[in-house]
Design a protein that fits this description.
Length: about 140
């Protein structure tokens, strides 16, 4: 992750940015990481960094993901695509604007299963079946 992307992790995964967010040391993981004990995020600009217990690196996949918006009212993703994970869905306001619904995780049989958007808000429907729903 870039430094700017790392700064976006607390709203997605919990925790907060440490007041000394930027560091450059060989004693910590390279790039974006979170300290277990405090939940603090750091960005280490060191060229290699190192492993360290109690630290979790935050990463992204090395390929581009293309998001596809399904048809309005459809009950599932278009043929040839996969539904998103809850974590992926939480990140969509960054790419498409809008906000997260409160509560974010819902269980409604009358809405499509998985990541949905209505009225500019994203939610993740955990209902095992879900259904088509216009709007």
């Amino acid at each position: 992750l870039t430094k700017a992307e790392c700064q976006q992790m607390p709203p997605l995964f919990g925790g907060h940015l440490h007041k000394s967010f930027s560091t450059e040391t060989a004693l910590e993981p390279k790039g974006c990481f979170r300290m277990h004990a405090t939940g603090d995020y750091y960005f280490n600009a060191h060229a290699s960094g190192s492993t360290r217990n109690g630290r979790t690196p935050f990463c992204k996949l090395a390929y581009n993901i293309e998001y596809i918006v399904g048809d309005d009212g459809a009950g599932q993703c278009p043929l040839g695509t996969d539904g998103m994970s809850e974590t992926e869905c939480r990140g969509l306001p960054k790419w498409f604007g809008g906000s997260l619904h409160s509560p974010f995780v819902i269980g409604r049989a009358n809405y499509p299963r998985g990541c949905i958007r209505w009225n500019g808000r994203f939610a993740y429907n955990m209902d095992p079946e879900g259904a088509a729903h216009l709007g």
